[in-house]
Amino acid sequence: MLAYARLDTHYLVQLRDRLKAELIANDRYSLAEEDFNHTCGLDAQCCASEQEMFWRIQGIQTLEPHQLAVLFELFKFREERARELDRPTFKVLSNQALLEIAQTCRTLSRN
Q1: Full residue range of the structural domain in which residue 13 is found
Q2: Sign of CA dihedral 90, 93, 98, 99
Q3: How far is CA 73 from CA 58, 98, 100, in A?
């Protein structure tokens, strides 16, 4: 696991240096630096509310109302669990998995 993490980050410094040189060569470094500094100060949650992120799930428009309700509850659960674990939401459960679970839910017919 450590070897994977080490290899995963091994080329980042070289990549940073190469991209910085390209930005400088194209006279765009100061603009990029301004954007980078601005982005570093942002909280990921401030960019979109939970409901906005929910409605961005691809395939949501195909769901029936009861399936949307299930999906929203699953979505809220995943958001809360990701915060507890301090992990990105996709590492808890993907949007596709949430959608597939919601799609399997059918209304119960009364006998």
Answers
A1: 1-42
A2: positive
A3: 17, 10, 14
pLDDT tens digits for 70-79?
999 999 999 9
- Chain centroid, CA 56 distance in Å: 11
CA distance 99 to 64: 12
Q: What is the DSSP letter of 87?
A: -
- On whether both 63 and 111 belong to a single domain, the answer is yes
Which tens digit of pLDDT belongs to each residue from 1-12?
Answer: 777 777 878 888
Report the length, in residues, of the chain.
111
53 with 64, same domain: the answer is yes
Residue 57 shares a structural domain with residue 111: yes
As a whole number of angstroms, the distance between CA 68 and CA 75 comes to 10
Same domain, 50 and 33: no
| Token reading at 72 | 């929203």
Considering the domain architecture, whether residues 38 and 50 belong to the same structural domain is answered as: no
| 36 and 56 together in one domain | no
